[in-house]
Every structure is written in structure tokens, then in C-alpha cells.
Amino acid sequence: MSGIAINFRERLAEKGLKVCHQHMSKILRNPFYCGMLAHNMLEGKVVEGNQEQLVSKEVFLKVNGLLKENPQGYRIKVKTRKSH
Fold this sequence. Notes:
It comes from Sphingobacterium hotanense. This protein has 3 helices and 2 strands. It is mostly helical.
């Protein structure tokens, strides 16, 4: 887990909130937690919300930039038949 997520989890723990690393990952990937809203009714646009930010936009963009550079998860390899 990145240092940003660990530091963030520690700050939440100081306030009595325990967050597992899977949930932390979801928080850092969701624009809602940095004060933005994204919804199908907005036709793909992300707009400024009026909710309190849990994560700064700076941290959100940094984390998501790192995730794009080093994606995690399952990958599907398509096997193709080679004709000889």
C-alpha cells in the first residue's frame, strides 16, 4: 500500500476510525471523497460537490496518476491460434 494511504489510515485511526486497506483503496479512487461528483445523469462530467472533502484533490490526483502508471488487478490474456 502506498505511503499516502498508510498516512491517511493513521490519521483516521487517531480519530477512532479504522479503515481496512481495501476500503482505503476505494476511497482514494472515488472522486466523491475529494469533493467531486460523477454520475450517469451528468453525462460523464465530473462536477464540484458541496460535501466536505475527506481527501484533498492533490492527493486524489497523485494517487490516481500512480494507479494509471502501475495498474493492479486481473488481466485477461487472449490466446490466439497461430496458423502454420
